[in-house]
């Protein structure tokens, strides 16, 4: 056998791709609608909607003698910082997934080696840090 043939571990490759797709669905990157034969991809997803709902809940005036949180501004800041960092992390993970199956597909060891050595790539280190 030639050493240029990439090794395959279909379970590992499928698991990596399935995990990325599940992350994309929970983020909301794949919201596709069919209207008159045209597929429209919208960017408003679950993560964005939950961020907005949490901010609205914190900004709402108290009712029926309830008290407001003293640290409301800090919590709103935390919500939006978490959203920004989550978006950057998702984008980096999407880029690394693209590298695995498109850009570096024919690298020595194939996708399996790329998945196993994922912390050797700057984009993936940034994802973990974010």
Question: What does this protein structure show overall?
Answer:
This protein is mainly α and 130 residues long. The chain has one domain. It is built from five helices and two strands. It has helices at 10-27, 46-59, 72-103, 110-116, 122-129; strands spanning 31-35, 38-42. Strands 1-2 form a two-stranded antiparallel sheet. α2 packs antiparallel against α3. Mean pLDDT is 75; it is low at 38-42.
Dominant shape: elongated
With helices defined by DSSP (H or I, 4 residues minimum), what is the helix count?
Answer: 5
Secondary structure: number of strands: 2
Instruction: Give the class from helix and strand content and strand pairing.
Output: mainly alpha
Order of helices and strands: HEEHHHH
Q: Residue share in helices?
A: 55-70%
Ends distance: 41 Å
Uncertain spans: 38-42
Q: For the largest sheet, list the strands in their spatial order.
A: 1-2
C-alpha-based Rg, rounded: 20 Å
């Amino acid at each position: 056998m030639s050493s240029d043939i990439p090794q395959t571990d279909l379970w590992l490759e499928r698991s990596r791709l399935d995990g990325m797709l599940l992350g994309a669905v929970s983020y909301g990157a794949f919201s596709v609608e069919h209207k008159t034969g045209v597929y429209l991809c919208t960017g408003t997803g679950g993560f964005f909607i939950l961020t907005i709902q949490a901010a609205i809940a914190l900004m709402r005036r108290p009712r029926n003698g309830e008290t407001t949180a003293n640290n409301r501004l800090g919590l709103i800041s935390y919500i939006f910082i978490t959203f920004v960092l989550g978006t950057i992390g998702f984008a980096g993970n999407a880029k690394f997934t693209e590298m695995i199956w498109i850009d570096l597909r024919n690298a020595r060891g194939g996708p399996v080696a790329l998945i196993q050595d994922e912390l050797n790539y700057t984009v993936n280190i940034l994802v973990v840090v974010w």
